[in-house]
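A common beginner's mistake is to predict each chain separately and then try to dock the pieces by hand. The better habit, illustrated here, is to supply every component at once so that their relative placement is modeled jointly.
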Amino acid sequence: MAITGWQAARDEALRRIRARDWPPGGRIPDEADLAAEWGVARATVNRALRDLAEAGYLERRRKGGTRVPLTPVRKATFAIPIIRQDIEARGQTPGYRLLSDRSDTVPAALRDRLGDGPMRHVTALHLADGTPYCLEDRWLSPRVAEGIRFDTLSANEWLVGNVTFSEGTLAFHAIAADAPLAQTLGCDPGAALLAVDRETRDQGPITWVRLIYAPGYRMETGL
Amino acid sequence: MAITGWQAARDEALRRIRARDWPPGGRIPDEADLAAEWGVARATVNRALRDLAEAGYLERRRKGGTRVPLTPVRKATFAIPIIRQDIEARGQTPGYRLLSDRSDTVPAALRDRLGDGPMRHVTALHLADGTPYCLEDRWLSPRVAEGIRFDTLSANEWLVGNVTFSEGTLAFHAIAADAPLAQTLGCDPGAALLAVDRETRDQGPITWVRLIYAPGYRMETGL
DNA sequence: TGTCGCAATAAGTATATACATATTATCGCC
DNA sequence: GGCGATAATATGTATATACTTATTGCGACA
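With all components supplied together, the output reads:
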């Protein structure tokens, strides 16, 4: 078994996992043994197995060794685009219109995540070739982006470049357009819309945002 | 500047990026210089910068050096759940009902991704505490899962454990329930539903699946 | 002036070695 | 037999060194 390079080692390990040479729930040989068997350094095996562990194919613990999970949880990484870039990547011309920007009391549904003080509430419409593309409905912690105006620059774009995205959650769901939403997005009432909620925090809440896309929008990603 | 460990090196690099010490679009010192400055080995710097590059904070090219992207594209990793586990994690009892399993011609919309030969077409309903949870509409390459019956075991579950997820795409979108879909999922016609399309390929197509979730479903993930 | 090829460069990788650290396993003691 | 201290162990990390490779940029040549 001639292995050269950590990627080859990773591929061989993955082959064994899939071939059930290393059965689910079982423990695999330790790094030193694999290094000897494959004729590579232990650091190379380490890199290969660490990579597989990050992808969810293996579970590793100090002293406990490395095992194949009974139910592998596959992990997908996908890029969170800046909306403007997203539009440009489709070959369309981005547009932006600020709808409102004021201090407001946080709705009850968000109060447990954002606290109950007043927060800055920004709504804006993103356009592609002049037609509505995405509605941005954002709550901002007052101390973030203090004094920044979002007339021409979207909060989306400002935040991506200026804030640590150290922690947070992301959620996809579908909502039906009510009358005002339909009017804003220029679609039929009742249309099915993709919504993405994103919460960002870093020792306290930073921002909560819901992006509601025009009908037909697909958010795609490589696996 | 006392740096010990690759994580400290990564943190210091990230601090400089955020503090604009290393401005967007600019090139940062090369690994050897940083290693000397921080008093660590180049391999340690490499690990740190590689990590930041994987997260989207830096762009690295051989010979070209390392630079701070003008518009950082943040990357989120999230786990793709097995439906049954997803339901169990909510404290509900999973159920499964196979609706159809037959060879069929691929619809025109999928033909460019799957080819135009006949493929195995499996539809099934996942239940949570007896109520419809998710409709699975799957096209399978005939050579995959040959002879496997999906009466009691869902294709979703079988594939996660048995197939290389080496390549593929993932897309989220929203669709409105038509009459038959509404009946299957037990919801009102016109309801907004979250749909997830997933295509898996490994030197040729393996499977294409659309999961359509019951109204109100949110797919959540850490960032 | 343009372009082709070569040299310089910075990241990518491999290796042996050494030590750190989290866990597990074991042994002795009560 | 239970429990706690201790030893054993597999992975995690750091280091110096050496070589590889993609890419850039420069210089020679047409």
